[in-house]
Structure prediction request, 1172 residues.
Amino acid sequence: MFRTKTCGELRLANVGESVTLSGWVQRTRKMGGMTFADLRDRYGITQLVFDESTDAALCEQANRLGREWVIQVVGEVSERQSKNQNLPTGDIEIIVRQLVVLNESAVPPFTIEEQSDGGDDLRMKYRYLDLRRPCVRKNLELRHKFAFEVRRYLDQQGFMEIETPVLVNSTPEGARDFVVPSRMNPGQFYALPQSPQTLKQLLMVAGMDRYFQIVKCFRDEDLRADRQPEFTQIDCEMSFVEQEDILQMFEGMSRHLFKTILNIDIPTLPRMTWADAMKYYGSDKPDTRFDMKFVELMDVLKGTGEFSVFNEAEYIGGICCEGQAVYTRKQLDQLTDFVRRPQIGAKGLVYARVGEDGTLKSSVDKFYSPEVLENLKNAMQAKPGDLILIISGPDTLKARKQLCELRLEMGSRMGLRPKDKFSCLWVIDFPMYEWSDEEQRLMAMHHPFTSPKPEDIPLLDTDPASVRANAYDMVINGVEVGGGSIRIHDAKLQQKIFEILGFTPEQAQQKFGFLMNAFKYGAPPHGGLAYGLDRFVSLFAQLDSIRDCIAFPKNNSGRDVMLDAPGFIDQSQLDELCLQIDLPKE
Amino acid sequence: MFRTKTCGELRLANVGESVTLSGWVQRTRKMGGMTFADLRDRYGITQLVFDESTDAALCEQANRLGREWVIQVVGEVSERQSKNQNLPTGDIEIIVRQLVVLNESAVPPFTIEEQSDGGDDLRMKYRYLDLRRPCVRKNLELRHKFAFEVRRYLDQQGFMEIETPVLVNSTPEGARDFVVPSRMNPGQFYALPQSPQTLKQLLMVAGMDRYFQIVKCFRDEDLRADRQPEFTQIDCEMSFVEQEDILQMFEGMSRHLFKTILNIDIPTLPRMTWADAMKYYGSDKPDTRFDMKFVELMDVLKGTGEFSVFNEAEYIGGICCEGQAVYTRKQLDQLTDFVRRPQIGAKGLVYARVGEDGTLKSSVDKFYSPEVLENLKNAMQAKPGDLILIISGPDTLKARKQLCELRLEMGSRMGLRPKDKFSCLWVIDFPMYEWSDEEQRLMAMHHPFTSPKPEDIPLLDTDPASVRANAYDMVINGVEVGGGSIRIHDAKLQQKIFEILGFTPEQAQQKFGFLMNAFKYGAPPHGGLAYGLDRFVSLFAQLDSIRDCIAFPKNNSGRDVMLDAPGFIDQSQLDELCLQIDLPKE
Prediction:
């Protein structure tokens, strides 16, 4: 028996009890004839006291303890003279009468405290020490609870968690697959799943009715800051449902999660069409923690004055920043630099301050009459003291995206995006297709199994780009946490969609044959969605990076620096796999 | 809204209600002017009635329905004239007034009914149809519930489920790894984990205290009948524990699972030492549903008569089969053939029947005096009507294994191994090492991190083969469902164990460096175990093969015949990975 209590549970009520604790030495300090040590485990910190006058040898032993040594103590719970209000166990301490060193520790490369941080490289190399820090550990505790509550909700709703295979075949659309050479089938490869999309559709054909899985997925992409080669999805699918059934079911799940984990009652999720999201926020994942909607100003500013930039624009839009007329010229120049950065790519920024007297002072004053400026103020519903910021450009989509970045920047500057405030919504009615400049063809916006809205099916022949899909995303605070669609269950409609995507029947058969074959045997109407668990948990934990809710994340080169993976393998193993490495010549 | 009720929930109390159901047409039949159809979904089967005299067109539509068509009906719940006691919905039927065909179906390659079975190849190719059969679906439902209850129990006990990475590095001991070429690190490979063993130990170093994970693991082994290249473990680890703490915790989990899933109260698990298991059952996973323990007969039969086989044996052991003296000569010859099969490898079998008068008639009568035969009868505690079966051989371990197979065979023949009876136990005190003829060295019986029993540590220097480990297996009905050990947390002891296993310090550092490094920073005492989920669920579901509780299993060549995986990949993909395929010349 290594302990009778943990380091987090003793209170005044326990005073007088004899207890055994085990844990790590957080720090020690000598004061007069006493030695104090903070003993830490997953559950908390408890103060230990060694009294030289009672047991000099024991106290001497305590003085030799180093940081992060693992010890076991036996002692009596005692009320503290000077209580520590910041610690749940701060009312008590342990008068130690027996000390066993279970393991010594080398001096750790950084101290294990809330605010300590050895820098990202060191943290990742010594992740097992980084994880000892309560702030990091709490993220994993939240993740555990989150996943458990997902399962509890879905189980109650009659969903079955069904494991789908990890060794599958290469998927035709989407990102690059990780592949696994098969020794028993030389020259052939498994692929790791980017998602269990087709497998969950097969489970619907199999009559499983309500499926979910919290499952690892894999994408061999060049990693951006917040991408991981392996990530976790909450993958769900239902049969005999329409879009409304799915929105209700998963709105319920979000409500359950917010309530049980954060004790927050979220309101009914607003639903915004993709068209409106683009029009008012310039994004399909609008951050609705704050308003500051776009106002389109083509009628007001195009052709109504001598400003050629606006006169040539395909789009002119503005946002009204409440009370920000105090922005100095220098601050406005910074904003202009911000929108001109290559990642954003605007040509410039037009501003207008509304004075206390209600008059507008703008960087384009000289081009417009007072009437036009008055129209601008009215269109923007700007009040005295407000700042109007305007972006324009020859491409509506691009200009809106620039204005979106500007809006988010202003929201951040104005403190309108606090991490502890949550604003959830559904974005619905996505287009079926988006044009790919690279591929010079229409591409499926979600995936090729997404069902068009029934009323838009006739448009497939005449104007496919305008067809809307039965597709939906759940967006929280500007982050797409999940998304999905109603799937096509009709073989003829599926064939037509493939044609529009540019697949010949032979190509479609080759790429999706096993799914198409299954669909011949009575596929039910079905649909579903998938959440990114890492992102969803990150939002709940108010993290900047998904890495902080992953026990052992990989870096931007796809390496686990702690394990030193990937690594080289033996020639004999390559031979068994019938593989040769062929590195490019330097 | 595709349905207001499922096909499994309507009862007499619902009579008169108007309902909408959706599902698959199991079968249709015409009787007089009526057409009946069985409509099936995940939840059950409901009988539909179409009345020609009420609506001839509708009835005609129903007559065109084929097997496995997906339909939606609207109708009224009505009491059946002839009730079907075998069906929970057997008291009612639906008088249909509206029928919509949601999807047609091609004629399925086998019928979707309990007892139908297209043979293994067809079942696997059309697994999505096979899964529609209730008997197969029920296994997945049980698996879902099983996993959920595991999580519920462990969550209540303060365990955190923590996801460990799937893309890791190659593990040094154990079976062959599946590897994944890294595009971003050319020439290097990830490995898929055979188990998260080292990662969970790192989580203990990280202070996570109580960890578990239901996790996919991978082994690239030549597949035997009941092995899968990917399988699922319930992986668990605890800090600050001794063996007793772990046995208690996971005995509690088994009790929880048996109670919540099968409504069975299991008794306290007996604990059997490995030595006793080998002595009395010839196996480290004894089937204790029945007794029939081995009796060692060296004292009784070696050197007490003229039978040279026994006189030269290193081991002679027998089992007493109650009431089986009725076995004919032919049946005994069959048993002899059974133990002589190459998989078992015994040279022969000696038997003795106890007659109703208490006298022994044996195949070796002529070699032994009546006194010796009387001694044999007494040693075996054989009663009139019993059959004694004896195996001997020059190698104790091998002879015991042969006798074990014979005991299991007799248990099966005598009906002592019913699948709905469960006998659980712990096997403890495993040896640390076993001799490998192949490697000509001692090998770790569990893995190299297993801790020896403290009292046996001195033997490490003098007689390592006799050292017992703090290792334990949970055995149910002769199946090892889980096993684990207390780990070594002391670096010096670990070093010694590596030496005994024949690793130089350099080799140990190269193979286990990241774990050894972590252990320098205050590793707590820890231990754990892992269950094979597939096996555990198979036992609960009384299945012959783990495949039947896996949604999409692979065949013995590691192929998923439904997905047709693995498969060939594009040259461009190989180029990106800097790989060439080098198939052996025919």
In short: The longest strand of chain B covers residues 18-31. Chain B has a mean pLDDT of 94.
